[in-house]
Amino acid sequence: MNIRKATAADIDLITELRLEFLRERSPDLDQAAIKALAGRSRDFFVRRLPIGDMVAMIGDVDGEAVSTAFMVVSEKPANPDFPDGRGGAIINVYTRPAHRRRGHSTAVVSALVEEARRLRIASLDLLASGEAASLYERIGFSPSGYSAMRLSLSGSEA
Most Cβ neighbours (<10 Å): which of 42, 68, 77, 137? Predict the structure, then answer.
């Protein structure tokens, strides 16, 4: 597998891969929701990929994109965990079903970890499903001691 960092020329491709991920995660999405998510995702990539606070890695096999993972870089006031205030979150780790269990997700996430090191990001966070936790632990992730919590501010106006 060839792993490469996405460029502006890949925005349609990473949007497509994100939609595959979202459809699999939420199979009840209707066409209107998918269309809205496609537009918002594409807009996000157009704005954030060129300035470098969003990075996507793409894994290609025989010229076909089969795996991807995204990293969103954020800045907060400095603290002991983030001495320069920069942190990252890995999201949307996805491998197309026909290519799973071949190490592709491990490879694209590992490439993001190396990119984070190159960017001097202090730490990376991710949310792992139970079945994927061991994959991330092999890369070096460990439980952070924090529980993921969410307050849903429902509605598209949020």
Answer: 68
116 and 71 in contact (C-beta within 8 Å)? Answer: yes
**Cα–Cα distance list, 21 to 1, 37, 69, 104, 138 (Å):** 20, 12, 10, 15, 22
Local structure of 82: helix, strand or coil: strand
Q: Which domains does the chain have, with CATH numbers?
A: 2-139 (3.40.630.30)
Distance, CA of 62 to chain centre: 23
From first to last of the 158 residues of the chain, give the pLDDT tens digit: 999 999 999 999 999 999 999 999 999 999 999 999 999 999 999 999 999 999 999 999 999 999 999 999 998 898 887 788 889 999 999 999 999 999 999 999 999 999 999 999 988 999 887 778 888 888 998 888 777 777 888 765 54
- The conformation of residue 79, written as its DSSP 8-state character, comes to B
